[in-house]
Write a structure and sequence with these properties.
Belongs to the BolA/IbaG family. It holds the Pfam family BolA. This is BolA family transcriptional regulator. By secondary structure, this protein is an alpha+beta fold. It has a single domain, classed as 2-Layer Sandwich (GMP Synthetase, Chain A, domain 3). The protein is built from 3 helices and 3 strands. The longest helix has 16 residues. It is globular.
Amino acid sequence: MSVEKVERIRQLLTEALAPVELDVIDEGHKHVGHSGQGKGHFFARIVSPAFAGKNPIQRHRMVYEALGDMMPDGIHALSIEARAPGE
C-alpha cells in the first residue's frame, strides 16, 4: 500500500509544483510501533521553480496544499526538503 501512496504523492506534487527534481521515500520502517504507523511516514525532497522567493514556511504550505486530503487521511508524518533550483 505504501508504494501506491508514494506514487500518489509524486503525482500530486508533480501536477501542482512542476518539480525539476523529486524524491519521495517511504520511511515507515523508522516508525514501527509509533502511533501513526498505519497512515505512513514519508520524506519528500522537491526542487521546484515555484519555490523561488518563498520562505520555508510558505514552501511547506505549498506542499501541504498540493497533497490535499492525503495529509490528514493518508499521511501521518511528512518530512520536507523544499528548494528552488540553484539552492
